[in-house]
Amino acid sequence: MNTMSLWHLTGWEFAALAFAALLVGFSKTAVSGANTVSLAIFAAVLPARASTGVLLPILIAGDLLAVLTYRRHAHWPTLWRLFPAVAAGVVAGTVFLMWADDGIVRTSIGAILLLMAGVTVWRRRRADTEDDPDRVTTRAGRAKARSYGVLGGFTTMVANAGGPVMSMYLLSAGFRKLGFLGTSAFFFLIVNTSKLPFSAGLGLIDADSLLLDAALVLFVVPGALLGRWAVNRINQRLFEHLVIAATVVGGVQLLIP
């Protein structure tokens, strides 16, 4: 059966999803958090809950490309600190999805994203210094990692919107551009892959959604290549501003009915 007729998509709707898939690839190799725009497009074209199941394999494809590109720049002490808290957040998000409707999900995630962006801007204006990522081993660093980890796991489970939360954490921890991208690449590859059984169990991933994924995943590759080209032409301050701006845009889009 034709994929577009299976999902009752028009040519323009499929084109919008293809653009969103391209943007996923770009966000994974250039401006993390920009894929919140993709999330909004998928939720606008497809039923909101179903869109999370379609988007997840596309995100994993982007994660694989990002790991291949930035694997040497990952900061593993940060990752090990985050994973237990993220697991708790994923479980909480799964429970939340069992009873929450689309409106509650969108409002909750949008509010969290805007809160995280506001906190990050405030922290960076308050202390305009470079933190050391190794500070995650201090007591305050561990507490911050747990807090962001739970929020990241929760938001990535309920709406594939963990990217902006983790972007805010990595920026606040003082990561430079390549370390930021390498750490987030491994983080989301592991977390998104672990979400597959949960999403399948909730009925968000099935044969129909995978058929649509097969048609859209091809657009992730040119987006990733474009991001890899662009990242070397973006300075650190502009990079940080773009990440925060993408987070705010994504949060506002989720709050709009």
UniProtKB/TrEMBL annotation:
UniProt-listed InterPro entries: TM_pro_TauE-like, TSUP
Location in the cell: Cell membrane
The name this protein goes by in its record: Probable membrane transporter protein
Keyword entries, A-Z: Cell membrane, Membrane, Transmembrane, Transmembrane helix, Transport
Membrane topology designation: Multi-pass membrane protein
Organism of derivation: Streptomyces pilosus
Protein family (similarity comment): Belongs to the 4-toluene sulfonate uptake permease (TSUP) (TC 2.A.102) family.
GO cellular component assignments: plasma membrane
Hydrolase in keyword set: no
Lineage: Bacteria, Bacillati, Actinomycetota, Actinomycetes, Kitasatosporales
Transmembrane segments annotated in the record for this chain: 82-99, 105-122, 210-231, 238-256
